[in-house]
């Protein structure tokens, strides 16, 4: 593993040596994110291990395993292992991994592909790919400019892409132009599930989701972007939405929840669809 490559302390994204500018993390300098109040700071996998960080692998819901770290790093998201024919998809990514985490994921079937919703969750995605034999990392081509390290990245285009049986990427375009969700056809007893990262943000009242161009800076998303996103997922069956953090799950009636959440958003910004 590349123990010495820089990782931004604020967003948790790992950079390659050739893409690295010590003065600024270009992801944090964008209006959707922010540079830490103490200025730009960097760490490495080696430093995180020395500081007693550890990987956490535990069930998010029965049969669905989440992957994170303790203490949290950067934004603190957790990834998901999404099972199915052809192997697990690692949905979204985290900054941290070590030998014990890799061994535990292998015990759960390993990883056949990685897919990431948007740049804030790139984490150490190339590191994860290489730890599992160089599996492909799917990133929508609209977000190509934000990829910070070379590796086995597959830039896909268009609205949808089936990457493995029962697992389809949908480019919703919320939050980032390449903002993507993953439809899992077999999820939750065959009723379907949507893995949304924070493209559709599962909020504290887990009957609802919301939508933002920037969450930390409270910049709302454009209503037409939301309308297109809701229309794109409409043909897919799903009963559950898995958000980006532990416990952020809409456990039932998720499709209806998404529709009424969009309607509530429109109402509060004075938009008539």
Automatic annotation (TrEMBL):
Outline the extent of the Metallo-beta-lactamase domain. 76-245
Q: Which domain of life is it from?
A: Bacteria
Q: Which PANTHER family match?
A: METALLO-BETA-LACTAMASE FAMILY PROTEIN (AFU_ORTHOLOGUE AFUA_5G12770) (PTHR36839)
Identification of the protein by name: Metallo-beta-lactamase domain-containing protein
């Amino acid at each position: 593993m590349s123990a010495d490559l820089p990782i931004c302390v604020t967003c948790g994204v790992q950079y390659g040596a050739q893409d690295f500018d010590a003065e600024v993390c270009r992801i944090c300098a964008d209006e959707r994110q922010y540079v830490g109040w103490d200025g730009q700071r960097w760490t490495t996998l080696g430093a995180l291990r020395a500081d007693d960080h550890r990987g956490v692998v535990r069930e998010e819901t029965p049969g669905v395993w989440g992957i994170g770290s303790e203490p949290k790093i950067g934004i603190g998201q957790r990834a998901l292992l999404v099972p199915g024919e052809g192997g697990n998809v690692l949905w979204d990514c985290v900054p941290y991994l070590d030998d014990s985490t890799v061994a535990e994921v292998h015990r759960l079937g390993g990883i056949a592909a990685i897919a990431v919703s948007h740049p804030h969750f790139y984490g150490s995605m190339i590191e994860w790919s290489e730890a599992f034999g160089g599996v492909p990392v799917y990133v929508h081509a609209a977000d190509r400019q934000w990829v910070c390290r070379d590796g086995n990245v597959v830039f896909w285009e268009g609205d949808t892409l089936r990457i493995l049986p029962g697992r389809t990427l949908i480019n919703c375009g919320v939050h980032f132009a390449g903002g993507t969700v993953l439809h899992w056809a077999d999820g939750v007893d065959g009723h379907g599930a949507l893995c949304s990262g924070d493209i559709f943000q599962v909020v504290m009242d887990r009957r609802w989701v919301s939508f933002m161009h920037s969450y930390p800076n409270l910049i709302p998303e454009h209503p037409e972007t939301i309308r297109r996103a809701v229309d794109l997922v409409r043909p897919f069956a799903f009963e559950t939405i898995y958000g980006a953090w532990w416990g952020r799950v809409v456990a039932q009636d998720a499709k209806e929840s998404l529709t009424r959440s969009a309607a509530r958003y429109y109402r509060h910004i004075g938009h008539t669809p």
